[in-house]
Structure formats: structure tokens, C-alpha cells
Amino acid sequence: MSGVVDLPVELEVEGKENQLKAFLKKLSLEDKFKNFQSNGLSQIEHLQDIHEKDVDMLGLTVFEWRRLQREITTWKSEEESAKIVISLPNSLSNFFGTRDGQGNIVVSIESLKRKYKALWYENPVNPTQIFSNSFILQMAEQRMQFEKTLRSCELWCRKQRSTRISFLLALAKTPVISTWNQYYKSQSIMGKCEILERQHPAVASFLENRVREESSNVPSKAMYENICQYVAKLEEVSTFSTNTLQK
């Protein structure tokens, strides 16, 4: 069926043996490579099959084995974080022989970056691009199941991406927004409140103390006018919040 690709679970990386050599070198075990190779261990993935009883056969000391075991655990964790789960429609779940029996397949992020390079930001420089990268590959691969061409899939994703990014920007809060500039903070509900407090520090402090101390102090006339402006701005934030979340 057009648009559906059966991607392998393993990362599609060339030079498996060179990767294994580099992996062992990092652990000061590069001199053991031939031992590994002669025992059919030619890829990093193969190291998961090693057990403690194999240590002598591979020429490893107990301490080298412990070091290797720790690094394998770290590698496995990084591998899992470099994959995403794609849900297939019911008509295809049995055809692909999905691993979890629920119509899901695990796909390499690296392969999806190459496939959807027109949608992926290799070096994201702002919150919009960072948020886009957080979901665009999974969105594109899911949508590709229903599109006839890569081009039509990309066009659909671009339209949907804008709405989703607006939603994510609106919901972002501290500490995520702490490094954002004024423009991006103004796209966030919490950011708008932060800007408002910075513009009216006296009012913000007065209201905070009033709530915390359960005070009934009456504001001065000048303060009252500022409070009215502050509340009007809060209503604008409320409207922005409602409009964004209802998209």
C-alpha cells in the first residue's frame, strides 16, 4: 500500500563494526574487538546477548565486564529514547505483525528525519522550531498512512503544525519560558501574566499581599486606576486563553 513503510526496529546506521570499535574504545576495550568478532559479536546490538558466564570466552576481567555492562545499559536507554511509536490503522496492524499486538510499531527517529527532512529543523533556534521537532515526525508518519504522496503529507502537516504549536506555546510556563524573549512570552498565557506583572509591579505586589495577608486595605486613587488597567489586561489574557484552547 502506498505511503506505508515497514521500518526496522534497529537504528539504520552504516558501519556497524566501526561503531562497535568506537564503543569498545571508549571503555578501553578496543584490544578485545577481535575476541568479540570471532564470537559473532559484530554490532553494538549484539552486546545485549552477553552474559557473565561469557566473560572468560571474551577475555574480559570482572571489572571490564562490569564496565561493559554499565555502558550497555546506558546505550539501551539512549536507543529507546531515539525511537517513537507509530499507531497503524486496524486494516494494517496484522499485516505488519506489530510487536505489542495493539497496532503499534517502533520507528527510528533518524530514519524519519531523513524521510521528512522538509519538516524537520536540524538546528532549532527558537521555541516554535523546538516544539515542532517534538511532534512533527510522529505526526507525519501517522498521516502518511492516509496520503498518496509525501508532498501531500507535508502540506497537511504544515497546516496542522501551526495550530498545535500555538497551543503548546500558550500552555508553556516556567521554567520553559524563562529564556524566551518578549515575543514568545507574549504567546504564552503564563508569559503574558509575567509581562503584565513586570509592567505593573506595584499593583502585582499590592494584590499579592492583599491575598496572602487577607488584608482589606483600600488602594489609593492612583493605585485604583492602575488596578483597573491591570484587570483589563488580565481580561485580555483570559480571552486569549479561551480562544487558543478552543481552536
Describe the structure.
By secondary structure, this protein is mainly alpha-helical. It has three domains: 12-80, Transcription Factor, Ets-1 (DNA polymerase, domain 1); 84-177, no CATH class; 200-239. It contains twelve helices and two strands. Helix 7 packs across helix 8 (150-171). The longest helix is centred in the last third of the chain and has 25 residues, at 221-245. InterPro entries: SAM/pointed_sf.
Summarize the structure.
The protein contains 12 helices and 2 strands; from the N terminus they run ααααβαβααααααα.
Terminal Cα separation, in Å? 33 Å
Helix content: 55-70%
Q: Total helix count?
A: 12
Uncertain stretches? 1-14, 91-103
* Rg: 27 Å
Q: What coarse outline follows from CA principal-axis ratios?
A: elongated
Number of domains: 3
Mean pLDDT: 77
Q: Strand order across the biggest sheet?
A: 1-2
The major sheet is characterized as: 2 strands, antiparallel
Order of helices and strands: HHHHEHEHHHHHHH
Assign the structural class, choosing from mainly alpha, mainly beta, alpha/beta, alpha+beta, or little secondary structure.
Answer: mainly alpha
